[in-house]
Design goal:
The chain has about 375 residues and is an alpha/beta fold. It has two domains: about 5-55 and about 165-240, HypD, alpha/beta domain 1 (Rossmann fold, 3-Layer(aba) Sandwich); about 60-165 and about 250-305, HypD, alpha/beta domain 2 (Rossmann fold, 3-Layer(aba) Sandwich). It is about 35% helix and about 20% strand. It has 16 helices and eleven strands. The protein has helices at about 5-15, 30-35, 40, 55-60, 60-75, 100-105, 115-125, 140-150, 165-175, 190-195, 200-205, 215-235, 250-260, 290-295, 315-320, 350-355; strands at about 20-25, 45-50, 80, 110-115, 130-135, 155-165, 185, 210-215, 240, 260-270, 275-280. The strands form two sheets. It has a six-stranded mixed beta sheet, sandwiched between helices. It has a five-stranded parallel beta sheet with strand order 2-1-7-8-9. Helix 8 (about 140-150) packs across helix 13 (about 250-260). The longest helix is centred in the middle third of the chain and has 17 residues, at about 215-235. The protein is globular, with a radius of gyration of 21 Å.
């Protein structure tokens, strides 16, 4: 019989823990569930929950957003993107157009959408008008894009892709001198698609307790308890605390489409740098729908630099779990959801936006 949240909390509180224990949750959805439920306030003080790199909007390279803005402004296209992407600012003077939202206000044909099927429908409504779908996302977003392309789309639909895999950034952290966490809660939705075994390397190669979690307090607390027990007993393994959705092997159909349509490439992460084998690109078989192949290039490679966050913005440190959101000097002062300085205050998967939305302000 599964335990309720109170029972899991009681089991955690009964453990004799070292001080402190840092548990990183990779997924932005996990961070939202943790913060909304107030789990940090009820766990023992020795347990530190660290938000990790689980926000695709936050790590979308600045040069990709810049490219999308220029394409929308200079070509006769309709550019569509998931709503959060419209408000992410790039590093330009305030007098210039710094976001897709501002480009839209300046007259570019830009539309927010909520699903790939909306992009297909917009392209079908007028097959004489090119539609560019700017896609930033992790595996759970990229698999539906691959499925969409594999099943066939109108000739006038093109994809400007900025897709990323989640596990390579965790591998990068673990290979660094200071990973910053003692245990890992792996992302539930990604594991549903790709399979939980993708995260086995954390326990097997790095001897870090690991558990896949869902999005309820019960599942999250079960994952915390599992990793804490592993830590205390020095038995490190991958535990699946989301068995109702996560199965070994993941979504086989989705993964087949992914392999058919996408290839894995080295990719830049905003404020972090290039991580090997961490990005998606369309294969040559789908080049006729690749916006980077079919339109003039507006990429500005000079924008690819390690410090891609605005001056004073610590979003990269937040993404990598080096600091909490309210440790950034801009947080809740000059950086708010209404006027975001950095990308972590834009998306509802960004740790800064999540903390703000739940009333967490200055660090003291």
């Amino acid at each position: 019989m599964s335990l309720d949240a109170k029972a899991w909390l009681t089991k955690i509180q009964a453990l004799t823990l070292p001080n402190p224990v840092k548990i990183m949750n990779v997924c932005g959805g996990h961070e939202r569930a943790i913060t909304q439920a107030g789990l940090r306030s009820v766990l023992p003080e020795s347990i530190h929950l660290i938000p990790g790199p689980g926000c695709p909007v936050c790590i979308c390279p600045e040069e990709d957003i810049y490219e999308a803005i220029q394409l929308a402004l200079k070509e006769s296209v309709t550019l569509v993107a998931f709503g959060d992407m419209l408000r992410v600012p790039v590093n330009l003077p305030s007098r210039e157009i710094r976001s897709l939202e501002q480009a839209r206000a300046a007259g570019a044909a830009i539309r927010p959408i909520a699903s790939p099927m909306e992009a297909v429908q917009i392209a079908e409504q007028d097959r004489t008008k090119p539609v560019v779908f700017f896609v930033a996302g992790f595996e759970t977003t990229i698999v539906p894009i691959a499925s969409m392309l594999a099943q066939g789309v109108p000739d006038n639909l093109f994809v400007l892709l900025s897709g990323r895999l989640t596990w390579p950034v965790v591998a990068m952290l673990l290979d660094s001198d200071e990973p910053g966490f003692d245990a890992l809660v792996a992302p539930g939705h990604v594991s549903t698609v790709m399979g939980p075994e993708e995260w086995a390397f954390v326990a097997e190669q790095h001897h870090i307790p690991t558990a896949v979690a869902g999005f309820t307090s019960e599942s999250l607390l079960a994952a915390f308890y599992s990793t804490l027990r592993q830590l205390l007993e020095k038995k490190h393994f991958l535990d699946n605390c989301y068995p109702e959705a996560v199965r070994e092997g993941g979504n086989l159909t989705g993964k087949r489409y992914l392999k058919q349509v996408m290839k894995v490439v080295d990719a830049n992460w905003r404020g972090v740098g290039t991580i090997p084998n961490s990005g998606f690109a369309l294969t040559e078989a789908y080049a006729s729908h690749d916006a980077r192949v079919c339109f003039p290039g507006y990429a500005d490679n000079s924008r690819q630099r390690l410090g891609e966050m605005p001056a004073g913005c610590d979003c990269a440190k937040v993404v990598l779990g080096k600091i909490y959101p309210n440790d950034c000097k801009l947080y809740a002062r000059t950086c708010t959801p209404r006027e975001p300085v950095g990308p972590c205050m834009v998306s509802d998967e960004g740790a800064c936006r999540i903390w703000w939305a739940n009333g967490l302000r200055y660090s003291g």
